[in-house]
Specification:
The chain has 135 residues and is of the alpha+beta class. Helix content is 26%, strand content 38%. A four-stranded mixed beta sheet has the order 3-2-1-4. The protein has a three-stranded antiparallel beta sheet with strand order 5-6-7, with helices on one face.
Length: 135
């Protein structure tokens, strides 16, 4: 079954670009691609978007960008930008409620997010976050 609108995430980091198509009805990933951009972020994202369009010719998408290069892409495409630590924290909280620490290693930095359980609501919340400076 084809969803009326798939979710398309573009993550543009310091060394790579990633694209993921997610079906919100089936709650599953339909497509993912991870490529080095060799400092050609816009061209690489354009290529990823052409690939997605070929794979899903009759579909519409809700597009969001993240990553250190994501603000430029979001501005060029006129789509929302979500800061990458926020995006990762939301995904961990939703899909791995028992996790207490998530570590993300990027091309230029490392991030650690610490989670705790809210005693009143039982929800997983972000307790602290640490990030080193860019290399």
């Amino acid at each position: 079954m084809i969803a009326s609108t798939y979710h398309l995430g573009i993550d543009v980091g310091s060394t790579t670009a990633k694209a993921v198509v997610f079906d919100p009805l089936a709650q599953r990933v339909l497509f993912s691609r991870y490529v080095r951009h060799n400092a050609h972020q816009v061209e690489t994202v354009a290529s990823l978007l052409r690939t997605v369009a070929k794979e899903f010719p009759e579909c519409s998408f809700r597009l969001v960008a993240c990553g250190s290069g994501g603000t430029t892409i979001a501005d060029v495409l006129g789509v929302p930008f979500v800061q990458e630590v926020v995006a990762n924290s939301l995904a961990v909280r939703r899909n791995h409620e028992n996790v207490r620490c998530a570590i993300e290693l990027g091309g230029q930095d490392a991030k650690m997010v610490f989670f705790e359980r809210d005693e009143k609501s039982g929800a997983t919340t972000v307790a602290d976050m640490r990030m080193n400076g860019s290399c």
